[in-house]
Amino acid sequence: MAVIGGRHARAAAAIALGLGLVAGAHRTAAAQPSPAREAAAVRRAFLHAWNGYERYAWGHDELLPLSRGHRDWYPASFVMTPVDAYDTMKLMGLTAEAARAKSLILDSLNFDRDFPVQVFEITIRLLGGLISAYQLDGDPRFLALAHDLGTRLLPAFGSPTGMPYRFVNLRTGAVSGPVSNPAEIGTLMLEFGTLSKLTGEPRYYDAAKRAVVVLFGRRSRIGLVGSTIDVETGAWEDPDSHVSGGIDSYYEYLLKSWLLFRDPDFERMWDSSVAAIGRYLADQRPTGLWYGHANMDTGERTLTHFGALDAFFAAVLAKSGDTAHAAQLMASIDRMWTTFGIEPEELDYVTMRPVAAGYVLRPEALESAYYLYRITGEQRYRDMGRGMLDSLYRYCGAETGFTALKSVVTRERRDQMESFFLAETLKYAYLLFAPPATLDFDAVVFNTEAHPIRRTWR
Fold first, then answer.
1. Which residue pairs from 276-284 have beta carbons closer than 8 angstroms and sit at least 24 positions apart in sequence?
2. Is 364 a residue of the active site?
């Protein structure tokens, strides 16, 4: 296993060097490339991944970079990678690539499909991507597609509580999946709310907000939410509380919904929630500041686990104004990367050993480095991001794109390049080094898939 991983690591490093992504294994501080050169390297990395998609997965949801094949999420493709990557291309100035992606999207994307889809993933990737594409490009056909999709997703909110089911059939409106989680319930507001603002139809905003308010109202007496809840009865099924996958973006959207819509209800829910997080989930250890797991009813510590998904929380803390805790958490996140050469999916932060050793090209650590750099202007966050990119280039490069790792310990690779790698990971990496004028950080709110949304309404 280690021999295989080592061979793949050497091959990936050779690809990275061949693309001019890294200058070598040991760059001194004095020899660091300029921000412009770093941004150009990220742009080349994006083109490398996109060219692999165009050649081997065109018209499909995502590229399988090792087998040079493709994967669709459902019986029909939703061209997920082009929709997800379109605004990244626009920001990078990739005019020809964006034009080809746009033609594919407008010519082939069809939501009149007789099968169920996962409301959360379709919302953050496709609805968010189409809204951002419309705002950056101006073509009303993007908004028409978003409007059609939002309407087809609306039946999901028809539960007795108003919290959405996990799945909905896009043609029939049939729903399924009553046992859901805070992230899938509470990470719809930016997209549905913006759709209301752009179309003048309040039903999208109202449905998404009602779901969040109902979920918040079911928090425990100490202010925490659990991991799973029945949307039909409102009963919690798993009391484990944390900021990891399944809850993470619920908290993110409380803050961002306040910032985007200026609805004071979201500010109130965010302030209450972050106070409970700070009291019961924050965990200062000799290894750094982390946010672990606790019982939602008692606050008792249940797990000392933190992972790649959890790394988003440093960005959210920084955006909320709490740069002190954000900086401490970012130092821990950087340690999670440097301990293994690249971050594991999840680790025990007491022992600093992986609990889940894979890496699926996740963006959250780079996202937080970008937020903290733009908010504080401190060079150390660019340095952290540079180190993350060097390891990503070195260990994940493939001849047709970039690929996930089964293990950050053995470096064995996994045949996967999800659309969020182009939508989020490389977008945040590019913006970390690109000139501030590339995107006005203070004028946009990123959805959880890194699609920038602007308040273009009064």
1. 276/219, 276/222, 276/223, 276/224, 277/224, 277/243, 277/251, 278/325, 279/222, 279/223, 280/222, 280/223, 280/224, 280/241, 281/224, 281/241, 281/242, 281/243, 282/325, 283/349
2. yes
Question: What is the tens place of the pLDDT at every residue in 183-214?
Answer: 999 999 999 999 999 999 999 999 999 999 99
- In the annotation, is 121 catalytic? yes
Confidence of residue 3 (pLDDT cuts 50, 70, 90): very low
Out of 72, 121, 201, 383, the active site residue is 121
* Environment class of 101 (CB within 10 Å of its CB; exposed 0-12, middle 13-18, buried 19+): buried
Q: Of 84, 283, 345, 449, which residue is the catalytic one? A: 345
Q: Are 294 and 281 in contact (CB under 8 A)?
A: yes
Q: Reduce the DSSP state of residue 437 to 3 states and report it.
A: helix
Say if residue 182's pLDDT is above 90.
Answer: yes
- Does the pLDDT of residue 233 top 70, yes or no? yes
pLDDT band, residue 42 (cuts 50/70/90) = very high
Q: Which residue's entry shows tokens 């302030």? A: 271
